[in-house]
Amino acid sequence: MDESIQPEIAEKIKQLEKKFKNSGQDLGSYLDGLLHDRYLTYWDYIHLDTLLSLQIPRTHFPDEEIFIMYHQITELYFKLIIHELKQIIDDKLQTAEFFTKKLNRINRYFRVLIDSFDVMIKGMDKDQFLKYRMSLLPASGFQSVQFRMIEIYATPLANLVNAKEKAQFSEDDPLEDVYEHLYWKSGATDIKTGEKTLTLKQFEYRYTPRMMRIAHQVKQSTIYHRYLELPEKEQNNVHLINALRTFDTNVNINWLLMHMGAAYRYLNRDQGEVLATGGTNWKKFLPPSFQRIMFFPNLWSTEEKENWGQQWVTHQFNTTK
C-alpha cells in the first residue's frame, strides 16, 4: 500500500475490498466507474428540469398553473405519508415510541397540507377558475388514489363504509363486498338514478385492482391493527393516543373541511350551486358529520362520535367566508 495514502483512507479501501469480495464483485471495476462518473448536481439528483416540465395547462388562464402545481405538491405529500404508514405496518418492535415518531411525521405532513389549502381558497382568481375548470372534465381531485391508499393503510375497510350501511358490515365480510359500499363511492353517484358518474367509473377501472391488492395485503395489519397488537402498556401511551387521534382528526375532519371551504368559495352561489368537475355530490360527500369516518373508533367517546366534525364546522366556515 502506498505510504502516502492516509491511514483512514487505506482502511476504507480495505473495507471496500472486503465488501465487494464478499459479494463476488471486483473493487477495481467500481473504482473505474467512480473515476469516470460525473459529479452529482442538485438539479440532476432531484430531476429538477423534469419536475418543472410537468405543469401543462389545458387553457390560457394563468391561474390554472397554480391549480396544477398545488395538486402535484399535494400528491407528493401523500407519497411521504404513505412512506411512513408502510414503516409502521412493517415494524416488528411494537413500541409506542417508534409508532408515535412516525405518526408525528404524518401529522406534520397533513398540517402542512391543511395550512396550505389557502392557496386553493384564497390564491386563485374565481372567474378564471370557473372557466378553466370546464376544460378539466371529468377529472376531479376525487380521483386521488393515494388518498384512498392512506385510508386503506390506516383502518379496516369496514370502517370506511358509508354511514347508512356501516352497521351491516364487519371485518369478517369479504373485502370485495365491503369495497362496493365504501363511503366515497356515494360522492360520485347520481342521487336520483344511482348511476355512477364517469369520474367514478374511470377511477374504479384504473385503480380498483391496486386498491384491492393493498386491502388484502393489510387485511389484518392496518395502522389500527398494529395499534391493537401493541402491549397494553404501549397502547396506553398518552403521546401515542394523541398522535392517533390527531391523525384521525386531520384526515377525516380538518382535511375535508378545507375542501368544503374551497368548494363554497368557488362553487356555491346565492342562486344554486355550481356542479363540481366530475359531478361529485360535494355537499353530501364532504361534510365529516355526514359520513363520520373514523380510523380508530375505540379512541373516541360516544359523545365525540355523535358530534364528529361538528365542533370544527363553525370555526372553519367563519374563517373561509
UniProtKB/TrEMBL annotation:
The lineage of its organism: Bacteria, Pseudomonadati, Bacteroidota, Flavobacteriia, Flavobacteriales. It comes from Aquimarina litoralis. Pfam families: Trp_dioxygenase (PF03301). InterPro entries: Trp/Indoleamine_2_3_dOase-like (IPR037217), Trp_2_3_dOase (IPR004981). This is Tryptophan 2,3-dioxygenase family protein.
